[in-house]
Design a protein that fits this description.
It is a single chain. The protein is mostly beta strands and 486 residues long. It has one domain: Porin, CATH 2.40.160.50. Helix content is 8%, strand content 45%. The protein contains 7 helices and 17 strands. It has a 16-stranded antiparallel barrel with strand order 2-3-4-5-6-7-8-9-10-11-12-13-14-15-16-17. A hairpin with a 3-residue loop joins strand 15 and strand 16.
Length: 486
């Protein structure tokens, strides 16, 4: 965390020309002009992905500064890898001026993930057994070593390739039309145990819970779901999905990054096709063309504002959203992806984790439809300058909530007919077949620290805890990321 802050403060900035104007913004900061960019180490931490190392840069062009803190062009690049074998390779462009009176966003991203989270379907209806997946080299610290299966029991291999182009035009003032197209490519398989073990060789003569190396004979939940018929053969290896979306949005925010007031809401449809043939068959023939409906409402309510350097702003902010399948059949791996009108972040995983429901395990809720809410107070504690750069520090207490709206059908009789005798004996450790479990809300709470530079570059550190241990066996999760959640 300290390293990230030092890197942020020490970021080199290069200008195409000197700042000629002396106007100031609402906080008394000198308006930025020309080009602004810095090359930074991509150092971060996510409880679900581990420590991250790499490089990133964000180039902004402010022109004459007349629209500051809005930028004319933004170009973002990041290349990084994490200690939990997750990669980030992303190039993003965003502008409201390349096409006059239209906003254009282009994105190309590759996200290899050797251990993608998979906890089953329908949230609380699929039970999480921490004893099966939590390992410690000191077995005395494990709550029940004999129950241990594998650290990758709730994992599978998933690489995501994403290309997107989105455009927005104005209908009337804050009312916009939106359209976009792109491709999502998923490459899926069981975890590569040999790669994950590395130099650690598994010894068959020892108990598997006594070894750091993973036992290649242990079957993970993803493989079990395939055997039980819950994951169809046509979707089990992934697929390529070109998509098109269209909708409307309404935006009265005073700025896009960390707004102090205003409303942003959108309603849109996304049609995703499936045209690839896999080892098991053709996804289009299997009916994986599908249509999804998304609705999001964000509201930023100013509570306090002054031009003081300390405690200058307090904003109450909340986001409500839902995503539902309205036609066709969506492959399970796409139900973890939260559709959006504009690609602004690396991750759009849902639900669970630092990008949707903080404090809950990533991808804890997997269903055809879901709803969520994020509620927080944003306190801007202090504003200060270092050289020509304007900085602020903020604190954000928050509360997150999520719920299944369109569950998968889990038929106990059908599932057990495909189970092995060993799995049948403990079926109640895999599933809670009471339908009341499906719609029980998942809740978390926490607090965040924000350090911003020039209003657009924001480093975020969030600490959050779940209300139920089924959402996370840890006391809390911690995340260091870029930008606000919404």
């Amino acid at each position: 965390m300290i390293f990230c802050l030092c890197a942020l403060i020490g970021a080199p900035c290069i200008y195409a020309r000197k700042e000629k104007k002396q106007e100031v913004d609402s906080l008394g900061n000198k308006i930025k002009t020309g080009w602004n960019f810095g090359i930074l180490p991509s150092v971060a931490y996510d409880a679900d992905y581990g420590f991250q190392g790499g490089i990133l840069t964000n180039v902004y062009f402010y022109g004459d500064g007349s629209q500051y803190p809005e930028y004319i062009h933004s170009i973002y690049f990041e290349g990084a890898y994490t200690t939990k074998h997750h990669g980030i390779f992303r190039l993003n462009y965003d502008s409201k001026y390349l096409i006059p009176n239209h906003r254009l966003t282009l994105d190309a991203t590759y996200l290899p993930d050797a251990m993608c989270d998979f906890y089953g379907f329908n949230g609380y209806q699929s039970l999480y057994q921490s004893d099966w997946a939590v390992w410690n080299k000191n077995t005395e610290k494990m709550s029940n070593p004999a129950e241990y299966q594998s650290r990758v029991f709730y994992k599978y291999k998933r690489d995501l390739i994403r290309f997107a182009a989105d455009i927005e035009g104005t209908i009337y003032k804050g009312l916009k039309w939106n359209a976009g197209f792109g491709v999502l490519g998923y490459l899926i398989d069981i975890c590569n145990i040999s790669m994950l073990n590395g130099k650690n060789t598994y010894d068959d003569s020892k108990e598997h819970y006594e070894q750091k190396a993973l036992d290649p004979a242990v079957q993970g939940l993803y493989s079990k779901y395939k055997d039980w018929g819950l994951i169809d053969p046509a979707e089990s290896k992934g697929g390529w999905h070109p998509y098109a979306r269209a909708g409307i949005s309404f935006d009265t925010r005073d700025k896009r990054q960390g707004p102090n007031r205003g409303i942003y809401t959108d309603l849109f449809l996304t049609y995703s096709a499936a045209f690839n043939s896999t080892t098991y068959g053709n996804q289009a023939e299997a009916g994986y063309n599908h249509l999804q409906l998304n609705f999001t409402f964000r509201h930023y309510v100013p509570v306090w504002h002054s031009n003081a350097r300390c405690f200058s702003n307090i904003t109450f902010a909340y986001r409500l959203g839902t995503q539902n399948l309205i036609a066709g059949k969506s492959p399970f791996y796409m139900n973890n992806y939260m559709n959006t009108l504009f690609i602004q972040r690396v991750y759009y995983e849902g639900l669970g984790g630092g990008n949707s429901v903080r404090g809950m395990m990533a991808n804890r809720i997997l269903a055809n439809g879901f709803a969520f809410a994020n509620i927080e107070f944003r306190f801007r504690v202090v504003n200060f300058d270092i050289g020509r750069q304007h900085f602020f520090v903020g604190i954000n207490p928050f509360f997150d909530l999520a719920e299944v709206t369109q569950p998968y059908t889990l038929d106990k009789t059908q599932i057990m007919s495909r189970m092995s005798d060993a799995d049948k004996a403990q079926v109640d450790k895999f599933f809670d077949f009471d339908n009341k479990a499906i719609y029980r809300p998942h809740m978390t709470a926490g607090v965040g620290l924000k350090v911003g530079m020039n209003e657009n570059f924001v480093l975020s550190a969030d600490w959050a805890m779940p209300f139920d241990k089924q959402d996370n066996n840890k006391a809390a999760n911690f995340y260091i990321k870029m930008g606000y959640l919404f």
